[in-house]
Design brief:
seven-stranded mixed sheet; four-stranded antiparallel sheet
Length: 120
């Protein structure tokens, strides 16, 4: 099973930017859709963005126009560029690999998560 490792989280002021990375352990990464989810304290894990193996993308309404998702199959790496960050974006961000979907249940492989904190 592919293993995923996220990085790039941290503390940023509102209006700032961060770029998250997700590196996969296997080159078969290119055969999967990949996505980002997030979970804030006391809340359920929610969909943020996904990208298919062909490059199609999908975003949650709350991040449209602010976040972009991309992948480099040669490096088995996926990225989430987050701009104009808001305090409500504060959460642990997880990358996942599986089927192209907004449903967390469609993803079989998950990273350990990286904390993003946006101060007001």
């Amino acid at each position: 099973q592919v293993r995923l490792v996220e990085s790039g989280g941290g503390l940023v002021q509102a209006g700032g930017s961060l770029r998250l990375s997700c590196v996969a352990s296997e080159r078969t990464f290119r055969n999967y859709a990949t996505g980002w989810f997030r979970q804030a304290p006391g809340k359920e894990r929610e969909f943020v963005a996904s990208i298919s193996w062909t490059g199609s993308t999908n975003f949650a309404d709350s991040v449209k126009g602010r976040f972009t998702i991309s992948r480099d199959n040669a490096k088995s790496t996926m990225y989430l560029q987050m701009n104009s960050l808001k305090p409500e974006d504060t959460a642990v961000y997880y990358c996942a690999a599986g089927a192209y979907s907004t449903d967390a249940g469609s993803y079989g492989a998950w990273g350990q998560g990286t904390q993003v904190t946006v101060s007001s």
